[in-house]
Request: fold
Amino acid sequence: MPDFIIEDRGLNGPQTHVLIIGVGHYRHFGDGDEPTGADDFGMRQLTSPVHSAKEIASWFVEHYDHPAARLGSVRLLCSELHNNTYEHPGGSRIPVGRASFDNVRTAIRAWKDAGDGHVDNILIFYFSGHGVSDGARTVLILDDYGEDDQAPLDGAFDFSQVHRAMDHCQARTQCYFIDACRVAGEDLIDGANIGKGTIVRNEPDKSIGLPKVRSPIFYSTLAGAEAYGRQGRSSFFSEAIVTGLNGAAADNTSGAWRVDTGQLLRLIRFYLERAEDRGESLEQINESDNMVDFELNLPPASFPVPVVIGCQDKSENTGTVFSWRSGNKGDTRAPPENEHWDVLLDPERYDFEAQIQGAGIKTEKRTIRPPFHKVLF
Reply:
């Protein structure tokens, strides 16, 4: 079995195939273990991408449930300094390949070939690491960037070109998550060859007669802007993806709860705004391209929704005691000074209460629904 496959269920019929790439250790950066003369443009080692990649991989292995395209395979490439292995939820420790250009090209082609197996297949792609943009293109930096100091971008790939070429894959439902900076990189990529050759050829003839492809891209930040991880932890963007897929990005307008792309986009925005509001991250505004709404997952029967409880004026939170109740369930607490209270609650009817100093008791009755809810007194 190739060293980038961590799950292969050998199914027949429509399936979902997942490719996950996390680049934390860059060997040839100035602070890497094999530096060269290439300019790293201030990019440094990262810890969050590998945590994010492995957590998302484990979520798909353990929890993914699509009613029309069951999980078929998960491919994982990770670059970290000392531990290029993955602890499978089943208990085994699996070696995984580094996220070098050659390995990424091989993995993307295999993932695309898997997608070509059925028109109703679903393809899901996640990347976390460094990235740059020149306005028209998003270029993702791999762990062998700078191996050739005369052609440092041999260790990178043009994600925008790959995404366009995937329009002609037989799998007509695709979803992409790019958890990377998209800082202005004109000086880096102007006139340079990106990668060591084409990863996916653009073959329009292969999609003649097929339904229009659905291939939204979820970016963790705007073009020209930075994205932020967390030291030794998964990023807020990846945490939002997992929370959303678990059910917080679900909708039941068709009768049953189904996670869909539109709800997921809203949930990610909420997560990033809350991280900034709590002072845990700088401003990070997510965006999307090619957005189209479709189902991504069947959530479990019970799932939590992020809820924010507090006062309209955050300064009034100090000394205020908040509570929530539903049947025999409930909790009470005073949040930190000038902060709101973040809780996870099942979608149902609740009684909320705020005992505000000098203003008495205020109550609210709310029905909690995905993707999030704010109860502000």
Q: What stands out?
A: The chain has a mean pLDDT of 93. The chain is about 20% helix and 30% strand.
